[in-house]
Amino acid sequence: MTLIKSISGIRGTIGGKPLDNLTPIDAVKFAASYGTWLKNSKKGKKLKVVVGRDARISGPMIQQLVMNTLIGLGIDVIDLDLSTTPTVEVAVPMEEADGGIILTASHNPKQWNALKLLNEKGEFLSGEDGSEILEIAENADFTFADVDDLGTVQSVDHYIDTHIEEVLRLSLVDARKIAEAKFTVAVDGVNSTGGIAVPKLLRRLGVEVVELYCEPTGHFPHNPEPLKEHLHEICELVKNEGADLGIVVDPDVDRLAFISEDGEMFGEEYTLVACADYVLSKTSGNTVSNLSSSRALKDITEKHGGKYEASAVGEVNVVELMKRNSAVIGGEGNGGIIYPELHYGRDSLVGIALFLTFLAEKQMKMSELRKTYPSYFMSKNKIELTPELDVDEILRSVKEKFSKEEVSTIDGVKIDFPEYWVHLRKSNTEPIIRIYTEAKSQEKADKVAEEMITEIKEIANLS
């Protein structure tokens, strides 16, 4: 199976052998590495870490291993148990904790789990910090606490409610206006913690809720990535119930997708576009998304007089650029909304509240709102290369060939043409180049991708 180590954490499949999978030994080793890194960086301080998890089946086992490892290092634990990624991010600074661990494999299927690591701000670690943790893990350089210095566990069960209260306090969230709109909303919580948090938020906003898969059993009823091909049931439910819209989140509630009243996808890329349209209509400022996100955000930002910039792929990169450019909203085109007014992390609850306020203010149907935005279409492909080929050299050749166009090399090679763009990224684990294209029609996006694949094959002398 698979174990993937990165600067943002460790992710793998449950079962199998250590170092090949996410086994109990790997969970303990990586939790010990993170705890040791905290102790090294905050010498002499009594440390506290917030731990929360999504509802996947392996969660309780991994949670106990992680918490007891931290206790063994002399670190106190705030146990949120079932929670969401953004809820843990909100809780870390509220608890004045030194960090946080979220146990979730996000949109991956049930056999996966992961440890996602946060700093004292409740934000994902920098590349430098993540590299230090990986080095500690490699050397197994741990020193555990004496019996009189073991950490403690404090169970806290109010943070989803607290998170919702913080969302409701935002100046651009108008619960009264939403309640007056008398929305009916269908929710697919994929049997994880979104099934707890999203209906709670909606009911606080005065919305009538129709629940689908909102029991946090961890038995995902379909592929948990919120893509159109996985969401037939919620699309039918929206139409059959006469709902105003549908809401879908992934298992840890940091990705958000909407379904229009006609049962059609609003478009995962357009979650951020619509929320940004609303925020920018009330707050002057700039926006940020990653290089593989839709050009529609740039269009909307410039319409409001702001400046759009693109970061390398990865939430930590988006956040760093948002801070540098004082962005008032940002995120990723996969449905991740980052609204700094509350915190610097992808947050579906914030996205839902902002979007519903906007929809209530607009007094139009979802499908009508979607038509107000520029239409772009994406194609996502990959080309497999032989291991002996130099992927970096291939990307350099592509860059040189299209040097007369607008080219970015902060994350692979992205080429912006007047009517479309192409983004090439190499895999860190295998000889693959991922090819993302966007154009004003699906046919054009697919054609551009095919042409780029042919270009790469010619450069690499592949038949």
From TrEMBL:
<dbReference type="InterPro" id="IPR016055">
    <property type="entry name" value="A-D-PHexomutase_a/b/a-I/II/III"/>
</dbReference>
<dbReference type="Pfam" id="PF02879">
    <property type="entry name" value="PGM_PMM_II"/>
</dbReference>
<dbReference type="InterPro" id="IPR050060">
    <property type="entry name" value="Phosphoglucosamine_mutase"/>
</dbReference>
<keyword id="KW-0460">Magnesium</keyword>
<feature type="domain" description="Alpha-D-phosphohexomutase alpha/beta/alpha">
    <location>
        <begin position="270"/>
        <end position="374"/>
    </location>
</feature>
<dbReference type="InterPro" id="IPR024086">
    <property type="entry name" value="GlmM_arc-type"/>
</dbReference>
<feature type="domain" description="Alpha-D-phosphohexomutase alpha/beta/alpha">
    <location>
        <begin position="8"/>
        <end position="142"/>
    </location>
</feature>
<dbReference type="GO" id="GO:0008966">
    <property type="term" value="F:phosphoglucosamine mutase activity"/>
</dbReference>
<feature type="domain" description="Alpha-D-phosphohexomutase alpha/beta/alpha">
    <location>
        <begin position="171"/>
        <end position="263"/>
    </location>
</feature>
<dbReference type="Pfam" id="PF02880">
    <property type="entry name" value="PGM_PMM_III"/>
</dbReference>
<protein>
    <submittedName>
        <fullName>Phosphoglucosamine mutase</fullName>
        <ecNumber>5.4.2.10</ecNumber>
    </submittedName>
</protein>
<dbReference type="InterPro" id="IPR005845">
    <property type="entry name" value="A-D-PHexomutase_a/b/a-II"/>
</dbReference>
<dbReference type="Pfam" id="PF02878">
    <property type="entry name" value="PGM_PMM_I"/>
</dbReference>
<dbReference type="InterPro" id="IPR005846">
    <property type="entry name" value="A-D-PHexomutase_a/b/a-III"/>
</dbReference>
<dbReference type="InterPro" id="IPR005843">
    <property type="entry name" value="A-D-PHexomutase_C"/>
</dbReference>
<dbReference type="Pfam" id="PF00408">
    <property type="entry name" value="PGM_PMM_IV"/>
</dbReference>
<dbReference type="InterPro" id="IPR036900">
    <property type="entry name" value="A-D-PHexomutase_C_sf"/>
</dbReference>
<dbReference type="InterPro" id="IPR016066">
    <property type="entry name" value="A-D-PHexomutase_CS"/>
</dbReference>
<keyword id="KW-0597">Phosphoprotein</keyword>
<feature type="domain" description="Alpha-D-phosphohexomutase C-terminal">
    <location>
        <begin position="401"/>
        <end position="453"/>
    </location>
</feature>
<keyword id="KW-0413">Isomerase</keyword>
<comment type="similarity">
    <text>Belongs to the phosphohexose mutase family.</text>
</comment>
<dbReference type="InterPro" id="IPR005844">
    <property type="entry name" value="A-D-PHexomutase_a/b/a-I"/>
</dbReference>
<keyword id="KW-0479">Metal-binding</keyword>
<dbReference type="InterPro" id="IPR005841">
    <property type="entry name" value="Alpha-D-phosphohexomutase_SF"/>
</dbReference>
